[in-house]
Amino acid sequence: MSSSARQEDVRKQFLLVRGDDAVDRHRLPEAWCEQQFGAWTLFYGPDLPLVFRGEHMVILGLAIDSDRGLLVGASGPRVETAEDLVRGWGGRFLVLEGSGQAHDVVRIWSDPAGSLCAFMHRQLGWLASTPTLIGRVFGERFAMRSAMERRVLQRLVEHSGTWYPAGLSEWQDWELLPPSHVTEIDESGVVAARRFWPVPEVKVAAASPAEVLPEFVARLAGILRLLASVHPLEIPVSAGRDSRILLACSRGLKRQTRYSVRSLTGGDDCREVEVSRALAEVLALDHHVDEPADAVRMLCMGYGGEVARRHYDFIEAGDARSTATVVAGELGFLDAGIPSEELDFVLCRLEAWVSGLAGLPQSIRGDLLYLEQRMAPTMSVVLHRDDLGCRFAVAPLNAFPLYDLLVSLPMDYRREWQVVDEVCRLAWPATRMVPFQKTYFTGREKLRVGVRLMAAPLLGSDYLRAWRSPSFRKILRSRSSTT
Predict the structure, then answer these.
(1) Residue 482 phi/psi, 5° resolution?
(2) What is the model's pTM?
């Protein structure tokens, strides 16, 4: 899909260029703001959250300091560099850190999935939030990729669902800023990127769920509380597991939170709506079906939850090039019927990414494959679409401390999808009453649910409401189509 065909909220986007005469201001979106940052000029939409932290640091988007339990603002502890802080943050953010008398050198820090996406010009070091913005502001100033390469990228989008495969766009010299890296642009425009997360000594598959998941629940619930302290929240609740994690951890905010669901077919009888409505009736949620987002609310998406269930395995295949080919297969790129010589420029980019994993534990590389080659090239840009109609879209699960906790769990525990069930049990047990991804119970599940319904007077109001919920009782009566 070409970037011009995508709807995006330009009022929450940005542009960073060196100098103050690099942009024709008449081509900027309406009502955009402008701010000098040393030798650089930052242009940004009026609805983009932004904080100037002294003269040397700008935080674009929303950053949450999970370690200290606060939203990152203009004041805070003194540190030598942003790296002392960022590894404890979550949210949807980019940090610009200038050094030198005129900020001739700029360092850019991104969140774990690059969810406030930025495309960088490889020679100039300029930043633009999306390829759509590049075309709008610069027109034909920059060269596009060849027709063959654009055709390959379009075919990969159609067959894999990745919007910007391997971080590549239709613009020849603009590439997606790598997540979890600090990217430095020196005074001559030379660009260098260094990974700062995860650290090589990251604790992987070594902790027990009993010690990890209570802290995970407390941190995620704390992140939601901090977001709600700025703007009221809207949490989409589907039939899936990722949104169920957010729902369970929002229990303390239920009264002021709006919950919603969108049907895929425009009807009330689709699986997403049936499961979401059953949850709403059992839990007494303020629930909305197929309604526009609330413009005053922060939209909390479940992106990033796949780390809780070990979405990808990472298989080494000898050298970096061979491994890159395996990675391309995992991403669905090899199923698109593209000749190998035409796919070569994508594989070269993946090869460079594979080489950058050297020194990291093998067991964490599948999670990085998901975050950096699936989520960053797709969901980060999708969030600009999600921004439409709401105050700001964010993925609360996208936090370095949360991912540190998840990757410390045994891999089989995550792979068997036990994390979500235990998080729900700890945070809001009644969220487990309604099945995941289906509108029926198996025989064993019906027995378990029946026991809980019989004990409803002892278990509380959520379970009593399940007796009266038409949607829940419909699911309880349903039979699997395979039985």
Answers:
(1) -95, 0
(2) 0.93
